[in-house]
Amino acid sequence: MLTTLFQHSSLSLSARAVLATLAFCGALASREAAAQAAPKPPVEAAPQAVPGFWDPRRRPERPDLSRLTVIRFLTETDYPPFNFTGPDGNPAGFNVDLARAICDEIKVTCTIQMRRFDTLLDALTSNKGDAIIASMAVTPPMRARVDFSDPYYRAPARFVSRKDAVMPEVRPEYLEGKKIGAVAGSAHEAYLKAMFTDAEIKSYPDSETMRAALRRGEVDFIFGDGISLAFWINGTDSADCCAFSGGPFVESRYFGEGIGIAVRKGNDLLRQALNWALFRVWEKGRYTDLWLRYFSISPF
Q1: CA within 20 to 30 Å of 227's CA: 55, 248, 249, 251, which one?
Q2: How many C-beta atoms surround the C-beta of residue 184 within 10 A?
Q3: Alpha carbons 154 and 245: distance in angstroms, whole number
Q4: Four-point Cα dihedral 203, 191, 49, 208, nearest 10
Q5: Total Cβ atoms within 10 A of residue 238
Q6: 130 with 71: CB under 8 angstroms?
Q7: Do residues 259 and 1 make contact, with C-beta atoms less than 8 angstroms apart?
């Protein structure tokens, strides 16, 4: 999936106007005074951090790419912003653009076919495609059926609070006695029950109900999937009520090993080629460009 959200800061239009007026008045009195009083340019805001899932010290070896002539990618039909049908009717989304970047690195023809998620594994095993790039989680049961590339993102867990109660860091002792909402039966609820034992955990039937409870102030925090929460925070449904508190939680025991590209069992050549290409896409900054294009608020 996969941390930290960042707020850009700059001078407002009205503030800049006031500063400009002061500088102008000073110039009338004295050129030297005006030069000394001229406002300093605003400091550039820190860029949004982009999660990195590759170690520059562990560069994958370049496999024999001459044996690859085409990669037939399979992806899901409707899981925006990762994969969806674009305005022109063609596949679009983060996964789709990443697949195209991979093919550019390997210098191989790339096709992308959209299918329902529940048909992707059968399509792969029946040789109707070569690789699934559809936000598929790497889990032990899935590893028994397919092989995976290295993870190319994670789905971190995050806390969200109302904007007037944001905490830069969240620890169990900080939330003692606080009301925390989670979806009933989820890994996020299980994590809270195991780690935040002094908090009051409120269970909800689904994410929408949980988020509405935070908006109404029925809970102090909610805890859930950072990706969906990032889009909620930045969307109209949140009514600009809330923001992330603390950083990401990525314990694999609860939140998975990450998201990888699936290939047929034993297809080591393609798996190694994908790992090599993913590293190159990240190393060249193309992964960062894609991430910033699709995630205006980072789930990390």
Answers
A1: 55
A2: 13
A3: 18
A4: -20
A5: 18
A6: yes
A7: yes
Distance of CA 247 to the CA centre of its chain: 13
Strand ranges (E), 53-174: 70-76, 84-85, 91-92, 109-115, 131-137, 146-148, 157-162
Distance of alpha carbon 174 from its chain centroid, rounded? 26
84-85 and 91-92 beta bridge pairing? antiparallel
Cβ partners under 8 Å of residue 211, min gap 6:
160, 222, 229, 232, 237, 238
**Left (φ > 0), alpha (ψ -120 to 50) or beta: where does 80 sit?**
beta
271 contact partners, CB below 8 Å, separation of at least 6: 147, 148, 149, 263
CA distance 148 to 139: 10
Under 8 Å between Cβ of 189 and 201: yes
Which of 42-71 are b and which e, b meaning 16 or more Cβ less than 10 Å from the residue's Cβ? Answer: eeeeeebebbebbeeeeebeebebeebeeb
- Of 65, 72, 70, 91, give the one whose Cα is nearest residue 130: 72
pTM higher than 0.85: no
